[in-house]
Amino acid sequence: MSFKVLVVDDSSFFRRRVTDILNKDPDLDVIDVAINGIDAVEKAIALKPDVITMDIEMPLLNGIDAVKQIMAKAPTAIIMFSSLTHDGAKATLDALDAGALDFLPKKFNEIAKNTEDAGSLLRQRVVQLAKKKGARSPRISTFRSRALNDAKAKAAPLTRAAPPEARSLRTNSSFKKSSGKSYKLLAIGTSTGGPVALQKLLTQLPADFPLPIIMIQHMPAAFTLAFANRLNTLCKINVKQAASGDVLKPGCAYLAPGGKQMIVDGTENAAKLRILEDDSERIAFKPSVDISFGSAAKVFGGNVLGVILTGMGADGREGSRLLKARGATIWAQDEESCVVYGMPQAVTVAGISTLSLALESFPSAILKEIQHG
């Protein structure tokens, strides 16, 4: 049985292009197209697609307002197409605020070096969202309404059942007792679904949070500054896009800039960040969780609490392995609360993560762990 997709765009050329790309996957079936936001809302209600691809700039009703109406009337997994500009970044974050789950650049040459690779990535992202059982009622964005999110039933598992190793791992909805370890750094890695997850976690941390935080979110270069600024306005802690020379301070969170690598340098009592240009084709992710976590292991050793949140792929597994080898603690988000159970599953199945937690449990669990509560 194939997954039903609704393609929404005011450009007939782009509608045809996306339709052709998606229909190359036997698991996907573009059942219809919509030419504006009003058309999209009507067809979402009538056709009940598993996934919607949505343009942002459209006549009559733009993509952001269309997402809001769809999430209110016929909740559906939505992936946005956006421009890699400051305005495009803000609009995309607004779309996530409204309830969209993922986004991709609209210009395919900004997704990958060739059209085929870009098409493959698009199909992969759509299939991953479609495989989330119960995709018609995905986790509502905490950007828009924490009350709605808390009231909603838990989403069913995203993909196939987790391997036995993952199923045997302890999953706690409430974290009651700390390990008694001391920490000098909180390190967080995430990808698909990460912007919403990071906001839900960070907004619950107090202004006097006793550790510095580094965050690696797979995100285009044009988006990370806007995302860091938005988080800074919403959080009690300070949040900024990381820059070379930044000294790691308690109560401050540093977001790795898109398209570059973030390295932790110095000593654990005088740690600072170094931002590197990365033109290498060998490293798929820029920023890479593996690279930042690995550098943190060299500086902080075992005094790190590493957290792997929702995301596709396995970036973060090897960096987490390096941290754990030095005595650090690694936690992973559980399958049910992930948009994509890829990165957390990778560290869980490898036996690197010692605990799987629902997203909403992380803030209190982190505070109890680092404060020995």
Word description of this protein:
Helices cover 35% and strands 21% of the residues. With 373 residues, it is an alpha/beta fold. The strands form 3 sheets. It has an 8-stranded parallel beta sheet with strand order 6-15-14-13-7-8-10-9, with helices on both faces. Strands 2-1-3-4-5 form a 5-stranded parallel beta sheet, with helices on both faces. It has a two-stranded antiparallel ribbon with strand order 11-12. Helix 3 links the parallel strand 3 (51-55) and strand 4 (77-82). Helix 4 (86-98) crosses helix 9, helix 10 packs parallel to helix 11 (317-325) and helix 11 (317-325) packs across helix 12.
Key features?
single chain, 373 residues, alpha/beta, eight-stranded parallel β-sheet, five-stranded parallel β-sheet, 13 helices, 35% helix, elongated
Short description:
The chain has 373 residues and is of the alpha/beta class.
The overall average pLDDT, rounded, is 86
Helix and strand run: EHEHEHEHEHHHEEHEHEEEEHEHEHEH
**DSSP helical segment count:** 13
Query: Structural class, please?
Result: alpha/beta
Largest sheet: 8 strands, parallel
**How much beta, percentage-wise?**
15-25%
Strand order of the largest sheet: 6-15-14-13-7-8-10-9
What is the helical fraction, as a range of percent?
Answer: 25-40%
The value of Rg in angstroms is: 20 Å
